[in-house]
Specification:
5 helices, about 25% strand, DUF317_SPDY, about 270 residues, 3-stranded antiparallel beta sheet, DUF317 domain-containing protein, alpha+beta, 10-stranded antiparallel beta sheet
């Protein structure tokens, strides 16, 4: 690798102050590109209009993701079309949902589904979230009491997943999932929500909350760029691997224009 590719590192750069924030559920929205650039690198189409809200579409055109900060309450909306045995589904997440948690769900849309049965509660139990059974619902609450995931089903009504986070000052967000939302996506969301890993925010983007813990760190712009690029590179590599695997599969059926005799007639 040529040295000139690394000229961004070194004494010419000025370190910038950032903060690691815990718990991640109260870190605020963050940079939307954390979600959109990964999707773009995974082959999703950017349908956004200039100056308008973010709009992304999956390669097979069955899933659409939008982020609109210009309306109230604003936030993320995800819609999946009916296909095969899957019913139409949706999910909505508030504007202050941290992008790292949103990405837990949206990244999963780009990846093959696991053969294991999904379990939304497992990631929460692993992080010592407490269960609160109720006749109409089950709620898991984070150890600090600031975040929750609830499965609600009352007699005669459809089941519903509901989640969110809120601090003592009233700052927070909620998320809802349609009864038909694939469970592996809800599990991906709960995994990202329960993760103990802090998330990073730049100076001036730290929420005013007494419930968060912050650690000041100095970060070079080239370091930030390298971390962001690593995520994009991983998405491109995974997409390339999937496409290569599909292209290398042997054909199990005859081509549409082939006939039993193996001859072709000109018209």
């Amino acid at each position: 690798m040529k040295n000139k590719q690394w000229q961004g590192w070194g004494a010419g750069e000025q370190a910038q102050q950032h903060y690691l924030i815990e718990p991640r559920s109260l870190a605020g929205g963050g940079d939307v590109r954390h979600v959109s650039e990964f999707l773009r690198a995974s082959g999703w189409r950017d349908k956004s209009k200039t100056g308008g809200p973010l709009a992304m579409e999956s390669p097979d055109r069955t899933v659409r993701i939008a982020y609109d900060p210009y309306v109230l309450p604003g936030g993320w909306s995800i819609h999946g079309a009916a296909s095969g045995h899957q019913d139409e589904w949706w999910a909505v997440l508030g504007r202050q949902t941290p992008v790292e948690i949103v990405a837990g769900l949206t990244d999963a849309l780009t990846q093959p589904r696991s053969a294991h049965a999904p379990n939304v509660w497992a990631p929460l139990q692993d992080q010592n979230w407490s269960d609160q059974p109720h006749p109409d619902h089950v709620t898991a609450t984070s150890p600090d009491g600031n975040a929750w995931v609830q499965y609600h089903q009352s007699p005669g009504s459809e089941s519903m997943w509901w989640a969110g986070a809120k601090d003592g000052q009233g700052n927070g967000w909620t998320a809802q999932f349609a009864p038909s939302t694939p469970m592996h996506l809800v599990q991906a969301f709960s995994t990202a929500l329960a993760s103990p890993e802090p998330v990073m925010r730049p100076l001036g983007r730290v929420p005013h909350s007494t419930q968060i813990r912050t650690t000041s760190v100095s970060v070079l712009p080239s370091q930030l760029s390298a971390w962001q690029q690593a995520r994009i590179t991983a998405a491109r590599a995974a997409t390339w691997a999937r496409n290569t695997t599909r292209g290398s599969r042997p054909r199990t059926t005859a081509r549409p224009h082939a006939n039993a005799g193996g001859t072709r007639t000109r018209r």
